[in-house]
Amino acid sequence: MKKYRITVNGQTYEVEVEEVGGNISQSVPVQEQTPVAKIEQPKPQPQPKPEAKPKASGTTGKNKVTAPMPGTILSIKKKVGDKIQKGDVIMILEAMKMENEIIAPEDGTITSIDTSEGASVNTGDVLATFE
Fold this sequence. Notes:
By secondary structure, the protein is an all-beta fold. It contains no helices and eleven strands. The chain has two domains: 1-38, no CATH class; 57-130, CATH 2.40.50.100.
């Protein structure tokens, strides 16, 4: 006889099975067992997905480029020290499944990039500064 514990529709049953030789026509009586108390194991808590932390580089400039909407930074096109002209693309922000170009509002030089690729940003977060 072998003992097995079987769970059916959330109920756990303990059953004994007897091996019968080659005679398939022989039947074995089945006794109804009372359900065994189900031991519930604690479920592992899902770990929060680590967010890419914004990184500040360089010194803070006088003018700020802020996020116009919440989203994720896909790519950063400029780096600290780059000269920019009004309308230059500084980075790409993905929001609502669309890629949005974050452009320079004025001429200047990038003094800091205050986010990183893959970072989630909210409306108004400082993305970069320039002078």
